[in-house]
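#onboarding

Welcome to the new folks! Below is a worked example of what a typical request in this channel looks like: someone posts a single protein sequence, and someone else replies with the predicted structure as tokens. Don't worry about understanding the tokens yet, we'll cover that in week two.

Example request:
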Amino acid sequence: MSHPSVSRTGRTVTGLAAVAACSAGLLAAPAPASAVPDPRHVPGAPRAAAPYPDLAPRPPMGWNNWSYYMCNVNEKVVLDNARALVRSGLARKGYRTVTVDDCWMGRQRGPKGELVADRTKFPHGMAYLGEQLHRMGLRFGIYEDVGTLTCEKYPGSLGHFREDAALFAQWKVDYVKADGCNVPVPQGRTKEQAYRDLYGQMSAALRATGRPITFSVSAPAYFQFDGDSVWHRVIGWSAELGNLWRGGRDVALQQSTPAAKWASIVYNFRYNANLSGLQQPGRWNDPDFLLAGDTGLTRDEMQSQMSLWAMMAAPLISSTDIGALSPAAREVLGNERIIAVDQDELGVQGEIVQQDGSSAVLSKPLRNGDRAIALFNSGDSPRTLSVTAGAAGLPDAAAYRLHDLVTGHRRHSDGDIVAPDVPAHGTVLYRVTPE
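Example response:
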């Protein structure tokens, strides 16, 4: 990696102690959105039409093996989790893209330079895997890297973009996640130029196949600590080359401590919440996987991540053992009221409208004129949180209907939006309708 404190997107997390140290505070969030230097990326300003097809009109939803299984992935793991998505009803609720992350391939390319599956892990090959997923009504996602090697040192696509894209199309892949480990920077070029060139080559190769393949770009994750202006500029061209992009550190892995998992969720929320001005409908900021189901997270912590990701119109991509979900985790992931906020047709990322050192209030306009209001307590003690209707962006009204999207309870308010006794690490999410 280019920076020792940055985890490889889709890879082992480093520096979690530093994350934990600042997880309780929200005011120190990195990369304020006001630092955007390019007027094309200022909220409300016109953006140049992206050449990559608009293949993700709503935030993608699905499952990826990495955070939970890492390289312990194989055909059985993928298909068992796919069947569990269908059996649990989560697929029906939108979790339909099943993506195989790093370590699926052999260490060497085949005799014609082609990528080959690890036959021990995937004895029937990747085309077979895709066929089985499609038979279940699911979509097939796969991982590669634009560099010389993937993050776990398997063959990268550099020098093979057209061949690899054609092979993915032959396998009927629907979604490609392209990482950015081991990207060489040629003499006389900047790091940004090198990344933009290679991601541009993969983007063009995927388009040239004629198959509609959703493209997830990981380039911004490698620039989070290179300065706000560069980071935001990389997000800008990532939106031209693909449909969604990773912006920063990986969420914690399964073997991490509960505290480290919670710290990584808060950290990823903090940086992603500041990027609302760089997102637009069909082009999504991706703060990484949902951890609901991971051992050690409380119900409130799982619910907070789900609610905050929905408020940010983030991809909802689970990374856990779907077949072993607890009832609580299944309820969190399957809450259709909250999924509807994430998948709202307006496609707007909610913004922080109020915050202090241990809380944040987000507001997100919805297609029918309602607003979703999230009141997040990142601190370690329960507290009452509130925001005025005006501060939340609501129009003047005689009263407001508040629908608690977690509990389903409904009540009225004549002005302030109040969430009494929000538990530690908890979030109350209202759908608010002016009367």
